[in-house]
Amino acid sequence: MGIEIVPTTVRPDKNQTCAGATIAAVFDEHGPGHLTLVLRTITESTGNERALKAPIIWAVSDLIATQPAWADRGLGWIEAFDDVDLNALMVRARGNRKAVGVRAGIALLYERLSAALGSPARPSSTSVLRCCTT
Asked: CA-to-CA distance for 93 and 74, rounded, in angstroms?
């Protein structure tokens, strides 16, 4: 996919990340197809090539897990992220991290996506507990 994992001592450039452990954890938890969609969603959406950060990777993974009908829209799913600056959203989420973890704060981007993708489905309580407790 052209994504390079770099040491934490390096500032990641486009399509580079220091979140190798996160990528491995998403792979272990959800498998290769899910991970591929997570990474493609981030790197192929306009302006998010530098958003391969752990909380963002987890938040996109959480959305795919809880909103599979959205993710099944293929290119429409990725295009919905074109109007979302994931790095800016992460910075905003960090401002409230004492109340809500950054990962959970970023996952609220579903509100921004619902205009393009329709009302989100109500996730089952077990999927919410599974995806948002890590």
From this structure: 27
